[in-house]
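Below: protein 1.
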Amino acid sequence: MTTEKKSTVTRNRILATGRELVLARGFGGVGLKELLERSGVPKGSFYHYFASKEAFGCVLLGDYVDEYLQRFDALVDGPASGNEKLMRYFSAWLAQDGADSIADRCLVVKLAAEISDMSEDMRHVLDDGVKQLVARLAQLLREGAADGSVRPQSDPDAIAATLYGQWLGAAIMSKLSRSPAPLQTALADTQQRLAP
């Protein structure tokens, strides 16, 4: 293995381990010592890959946003009505067949309040990712209105942002109650709201 590949593998291992720890404890709850021990990287090597813990957080969130948007694009790819594509995405917020749901692994749900007070750079990474997602949802609302599968909306961008906010709230409520009921309610409400 070349030094460059080994370096990339090590960096990616730090990021993957970091994501799991952050999902479990939040960003502030993850210490560099534990992160490096869990990822099997010698102490002091962290700064070879990242200038600071905040820089690590920005890369971690940037990778998460990229993966999330790729997952979204894969979920809505292919021939289907705008409504079917939207329901594929929103249904993925609920765990199915033992798989993790979007809500279970969502770093926006986990970190939005924490990092908005902690790091402007990290906040910006997540905010930009949310804006990209909301734009995709708005486009599907427009597609659905055009193909007759979604009730036309006067302002698809505002409705997309509202829907995403509703789902974030439902995900938080599901975590608090340890129940999928808030997400199931959000799905039923979304279906009713968008029905032509």
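Below: protein 2.
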Amino acid sequence: MTFSMARPRAAVVAFLIVAAGAARAYAVEDDPTPVSVLIGDAVAEYDAGHYQEARALFRQAHERSPTARTLRGIGMCSFEMRDYVEAARALAASLRDQRRPLTSDQKRHAEALLAGAHTFIGRFTVKLKPATASLFVDGHPAEIEPDGVLLLSFGRHQLSLRCATCAPTEKDDYVDVTGSERRDIELALAPAPPPATDTSGAGTGAGAGGGVLTRSGGERDGATERGSAHLWFTGAAVAAALGAGGSALWWQNRSKALDDCKNGETMVRECISESTIASQRRVAIGATIGLGVAAVAAGAAAALLWPRGERSAPATVACVPTNNMVSCAIRF
């Protein structure tokens, strides 16, 4: 009888020992320190001037039981650590939060600290184009406040706008913050141009891809210029040939006058200007030869520039000097 009662008692003791061990392990794992203890330790660290430790404890308390007062504690520590952006965020949130809201004195104190933090930071309203683009500050995603304002601390900051559908896909700008400034910043990226349509393919109609092969504007302009040029050179060749013919007639006239003067077939008064007649003859010879060469050159240029699609023969100019004259012929 005694043996049978001892076995259940031993089992109960063993169960209590195992349960106690499990409870201690669970307590160590979940850290059951009450929030009130965390807040008390945070206040003690704050009073001792250990602001980094105090903020860590306030954050732990806020993760377990978020209230306006834990936010105020985080903001107070951040202000003393000169992390004015974090201070402004936490203090502004503490004034809005209705979970264990701040007392009147606490609210006045938070408002005073918030005003002080704003003197050491810049407030910027950033306008992005396109609106779907992403904003980065110093390489990290930007944190925009609930009122749409970007808070930046003292110093120089890099603002990066990134857009996968823009060209280029990224644009950087720099902002120097001196404190208390409030202004707008606009960052814009142009949308990427649509991909070029491939118009290559055989034939002049619609290709396999539905494209239509058309002649480019540059080719049309080049053909037009060539067509106009050959007409200009043809006209110049004709004009030069006519001028060469006229100067050849003058050459012939001056040559005959000079021969008559030398043979004594004219009056003595007319032969007094023999030197003048000889000079005029030389001018006529030079003009005939020069205009003839110009006519040949213009005709050759017209032939080179003549449109290849036409079957008509190019214009040809030929000038042959004969006795006391030059004969020119033009063939079209």
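Residues 91 and 286 are 102 Å apart (CA to CA).
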